[in-house]
Amino acid sequence: MKRFIYLVVFVCLLWLPARVWAQEPIVSPEVTASAEASQSASEATPSSIVEKIVEKQPDITQPTAETTGKLEGYLSSQKLAPLGLTNFLQYAIHGAVKQGVPANTIVLLLLFPLIAALIASARHIVGLRGFGIFTPAIISVALVATGIVAGLLLFGMILVVATLSRVFLRKLRLQYLPRMALLLWFVSLGVLTVIFLSPYIGQPNLTAVTIFPILILILLAENFIEVQSSGNMREAIRVTAETLLMALFCFFIMNLEVLQKFVLTNPELTVIGVAVYDLFVGKYVGLRIMEYWRFRQIIKHG
Amino acid sequence: MANSSSILGLNSRNHLFQSRFNRRTGKEIADSKLATKKFLDKYKILTPVLYGVFYQPSDVPKFNWGSLTENFVIKPAEGYGGGGIVIIKKRVSGDEFMTMDRKIIGLDDLKLHVLDILEGHYSIHGLAGTAFIEERIMIHPLFRRFTYQGTPDVRVIVFNKIPVMAMLRLPTAESAGKANLHQGAIGVGVDIASGKTTYGVWNDQLIKLIPGKNLRIAGLAIPFWDQILLTSIKIQAKLVNLGYMAVDFVIDQVRGPMVLELTARPGLRIQIANLAGLRRRLERIEGVEVDELDKGVRIAKDLFGLRPRGKKRDELAVFETVEVYADNKKRVKIDAKVDTGAYRTSIDRNLAKKLGLLKKKNVLWTTHFESALGKENRPIIGLTLWIGGQKILTTASVASRGDLKTKIIIGRRDMKGFIIKP
Question: Across the interface, do A295 and B7 touch by the CB < 8 Å criterion?
């Protein structure tokens, strides 16, 4: 009997979204957005919200005219030497941009290996740990998308909600995956609350945040919870803080306009340079900088 | 003489040792505590008694939970760093148990914990896991004063069939009865030669007394020491695909050392507890062939054992008369030259032969030596010396010294604590 009820509930859950789709005519996002905008304007809601959306600074993850314009400006001011082994990538980039590939996508793709190399050396040469290489790298991109204050605010909220709900869920004695699913339920509601409240706390950037940066920040929260529940709290906080530190550092690197210009106009140098650097880091077998501190007593004792 | 290059860091551990000497088949055995148990049973090496194994959730209700009364441990077979281990001291009432840190938990909690383990919550790879229940080994009376609510264990790092470094791990209140250093247990360095404790490390801090108790850490002799060293070598001799590993022992008062687990990626804090670097030690024995197990013990003791430092500062002249312990158990007086330019002590081939020191059981390994005079095979032998009245266990290389006046050269390794009179 119990099993049957579960089954019914599950089927209902599957059916629900299908019904919603069936009822609503499919419209392109632009149409709904403009419709909503005109609707809200005609209803004369406090215009500050609408204005603030307009105020939001375009970031490099979005192919708006402003971001790509500047980058394409760098390209058009670049004079290309005759095609050769040392500048074929430059030709490829110029060609792609002419065909309509957004320049910011190219810049981000060129910067991503650099960011990854920096994170790898943060671990192998400095000694910061963090959650692997992918999490800090992708969080830095998420931070670029949300803006630093909004991103940290969101992340803080996600962490607090996740930690509190974990403590609460422990008492319910659920199995692992359903427990994690409920945890994500809490986290999603927490993020929603932040977005609802954002106009009142003076964070207009938050209202325009897209889903992917949010999901990425939730990913970090999951990592955090996992370390927290299998290891100890201090460890979890430390590794999370180190991940954030690396992400912040990469965020600033990625936002450097000088660097963006450099990688766009010197793609060959960037690509080869990063690869060579990675090889060197991979062969390094000496002590990490933080290990000199960790083993200071042995060194002193000698 | 610990400089930073003698210390093993994470980079050098992973790159120079783990990835080169630990193969997948070896790691698979070490990474699963159940596979370890099965493997060691085959060679009659003692491990704690197994009470039950859970492969899938349906095994949980099938298990006879009523059979558990006291002193058992629930563990994830693929766990690491002590995660997911629940240690039960006794059953307080029908469905309630008391853990080592005196918390009361219900049978339902235990079952849920087993299910969590099966779900892969504590696995190294996050995949579905296996859980098992085994006996809890009681604290050896010798350790009782030093530990808090948990059984200490002894970790021996073995490389190339030679024990390299050892550590006693004492559970504390912070570590909730577990012996993992990163959870707050105390690591205590152990002298390989004597099996006696040396320094302590707690949360990366060097300590001399047990925190909260007025107990000196140094000088505690670990029972069954030689058996521990020998067992660790024996395991590696059988598990050739795990060239660099740690063996964790618990010591039962009656049954002796029992193997808790094998680790293919032992931590690095053991170096702080011993105030010595691992990297230099590992590099020294890389490539050495150990043909008999007890030779591994002998090499370890000679190479890595602590030297007693001279109490009064004895002086050594350039030419000294030393005594050598010959094969016929006699002490023979020989003129030696003290040479600060040599690292290892060396002895003339003919003299070594005359003293019976070149017998196979005394030759620890052979090095290939290249000099201006061409290539030469030099055996390294175990040597017992008395210098200035002090007994020194060491290793010496055997070389032809021909007509030279002194048949023994004392190297820097054996001069610790002496003052050289120029």
Answer: yes
Q: With b meaning 16 or more CB within 10 Å and e meaning fewer, what string describes A42-54?
A: eeeeeeeeeebee
Chain B residues in contact with A177 by the CB 8 A cut-off are 119
Please answer yes or no on whether A175 and B2 come within 8 Å at the CB atom. no
B70: three-class secondary structure by DSSP: strand
Regarding whether B203 and B174 lie in a shared domain, the answer is yes
- Cβ distance A285 to B16 less than 8 Å, yes or no, reads yes
| DSSP-based three-state secondary structure for B93 | strand
Please give, rounded to a whole number of angstroms, the shortest distance from the CA of A97 to a CA of chain B: 42
| pTM of this prediction exceeds 0.90 | no
Question: Beta strand pairing status for B131-135 and B104-106?
Answer: unpaired
Measure B332 CA to nearest chain A CA, in Å.
34
Summarize pLDDT for A191-232 with one digit per residue, the tens: 888 888 877 877 666 777 778 888 888 877 777 777 776 656
Domain containing residue B414: CATH number: 2.40.70.10
Other beta carbons within 10 Å of B250: 23
Please state the domain count of chain B: 3
Q: Looking at the complex, report in whole angstroms how far the Cα of residue A67 sits from the nearest Cα belonging to chain B.
A: 41
Span A91-137, pLDDT tens digits: 888 888 888 888 888 888 899 999 999 999 999 999 998 888 888 88
B216-253, pLDDT tens digit by residue? 998 899 999 999 999 999 999 998 889 999 999 999 99
* B290 and B169 housed in the same domain: yes
d(C-alpha B41, C-alpha A217), whole Å? 47
Question: Is B66 inside a domain boundary?
Answer: yes
B150 plus B61 within the same structural domain: no
What is the extent of the structural domain holding B92? Answer: 49-136
In a domain, B376, yes or no: yes
Whether residue B234 is found in the same domain as residue B266: yes
CA A295/CA B276 separation, integer angstroms:
10
Same domain for B319 and B376, yes or no, is yes
